[in-house]
Amino acid sequence: MTELSVEHLHEEPAEMAGAVQRVQRKMAPIVPAQNIAGRALVLVIAIMTFLSCLTFGAVTLVRDTASVWENQISREATIQIKPVEGLDMEAALAQASQIAGEFPGVKETRIIDRDATARLLEPWLGSGLNIDELPVPRLVVVTIDENNPPDFAAMRAAITPKLPSAALDDHRTWVDRLVAMARTTVTIGIAVLALMLSATVLTVVFATRGAMAGNGHIIEVLHFVGAEARFIAREFRWHFLVTGMKGAAAGGAAAILVFIVFSWWSSRNMATPQADQATALFGNFAIGSAGYLGVGLMVLVIGALTAATSHATVVTYLSDIDIRQPDAN
Amino acid sequence: MIRFENVGLRYGMGPEILRDISLHIPERSFQFLSGPSGAGKTTLLRLLFMSLKPTRGLITIFGKDRSRISRSELPHLRRRIGVVFQDFRLLDHMTTYENVALPLRVRGREEATYRTDVTELLKWVGLGERMHVLPPVLSGGEKQRAAIARALIEQPEILLADEPTGNVDPPLARRLLRLFIELNRLGTAVVIATHDLGLMEQVDARRMILAGGRLDVYD
Fold this sequence. Notes:
Largest interface: A-B, 44 and 59 residues
Protein name (chain B): Cell division ATP-binding protein FtsE
Subcellular location (chain B): Cell inner membrane; Cell membrane
Shape of chain B: globular
Helix content of chain B: 25-40%
GO molecular function (chain B): ATP binding; ATP hydrolysis activity; transmembrane transporter activity
Oligomer: heterodimer
Membrane topology (chain B): Peripheral membrane protein
Number of domains of chain A: 2
Strand order of the largest sheet of chain B: 6-7-8-3-9-10
InterPro entries (chain B): AAA+_ATPase, ABC_transporter-like_ATP-bd, ABC_transporter-like_CS, ABC_transpr_LolD-like, Cell_div_FtsE, MacB-like_ATP-bd, P-loop_NTPase
C-alpha cells in the first residue's frame, strides 16, 4: 500500500513516528494466551496427570515391593525339630545344621538358640519363660544362594531318616502364594493404570476440543486472510502443546512432591510401629528413578497428546471450510 | 479477472438460490451488487471468494477453473482478493494494528518489513490514533474501516465488500465510498454489495441487481 495517496492522513509526521515507535512491542499471539476454557484445560490436565502419576507410582511401588518380598522369603528355608521323648535337642539341631550345610547352594545355617526362641514366643507367652519346661519346637535357619538353590527334596530325604521329628520348610507354599498375590496386585494395578491413562487421554482430548471450540472464529479469519492450513495448524499446535505441558508439568510435579513427602515421612518415622508396618507393606515409599522417569514421560505424552488433538481439530475444521458445499450452510 | 457462466447454486435439495448467473468482473472495474435482503448477495460474494462451490456452471478466477483449483492453491489465490465481511471478523484479542497486519503476518513476514505500510494504511483510513486499541472498544465505523484496511494491506487485485456502509451514518458512508473510489483509482477492482440506493446514486458505476435468484447487469 505504499502507493496510496496520503490525502486522508490526519496526523503530523512527528505523531506518525511516535506511533511507529509504539508498535515496536511484542505482537499479540495469534491464538490468545489464556481464556476461561484454556485455564480449565490446564487445570483438567494437571488433575488427570496428577492422578495418573500417582497410579503409576503406586503400581511401581507395589511391583518393587512384591519383588522384594519374593526374594527375601525365597532366600531362606527352615528346619523345624519337634521335641520327642529321648531326643537330645541340641545334638539334633547341630546334626540338622550340619546335614543342611553340606548341600551345595546353602550359604549358611544358623540355629535359633534358646534365648532367641524365647523372644520369638514372648508376644504370646510373656517374658521369663523357661524354654525347657515346654515342648517347643526349635529352628535351624538355612540361608540359600538365590541364584543356585539347593535340592530341597534331597535335603529332606537326607534329614528325615536321621531325625524323624525334623521337618524342612522351604517356604515354597508361602513364596507361591506371595508370588501369586504380588502378580495379581501388579496386574490389578496395571489395569487401573490403563483405565486411568485411558480416562486421561479421553479427558485431555475432549477438554482440548472444548477449548478449541471457542477458537473457530480465529481459524476462519486466518483462513480467509490467506493463511495456509499448516500455518494455522502450527499456531494452534504450539499453543496447545505449551498449555498441555503446563498442566501436565504441574500435575507431575505435584505427584513427585507427594512421593517425596511420603518418602521423607517414612524415613523420619523409621523405627516407629506405624512406619515399620508401612515399610513392611510398601518398602521405603521410594518410587525410584524408573518412577520419576515415568512421570516425566507421562508429562511429555500428555503435552504431545494435547498438541495432536488441537492439530487434528484444526485440520478437520479447515477441511470442513474448504470442502463446504452449499448444503452445509 | 473473474467470470461466471450460467452459475447456479442451491442449498441441499432446496430451490436454487442463484440461477444462471453470468457476469464478468474486469480488472480495475467498479461495481455495485444490489438487491433486496435475502436475494443472495452474500452468497454471490462467497462464490467470488471461493468459500462456496457452485452446484452448476463455470467460474473462472484469475484464469483458473474454480472446479480445478486445489485446496493448497486456495490460500495463494485468496491473497489476491480482499474481503470486507459484513460482521467485520476482527480478532478481539489483537489491536487494530495487529488485525490489519494479520494477512502479512500469516505469510511469515517480519514485522519490521511491514510496520510502516500498516501504519500508513491505518492513517489513510483515519485510524492512526486508534491503532493500539482492541476491537471491542472501536465504534461500528472504526471496525468497518479496520476491516477494510485488513482487506487492503496485501494490495489485492479485487476488493469484495459486503454491506460496508450498513453500520455507519451517512457522512461516514460517503467517506468510506470515497475511500473505495480512491482505491479503485489506484488499480483495484471493487465489488460493493449493498442495498443502500442512496450510496449507489453517488457514483456512476456498473450495477448488478440480484432478484429472484437472477442477476441483471446495468453498465
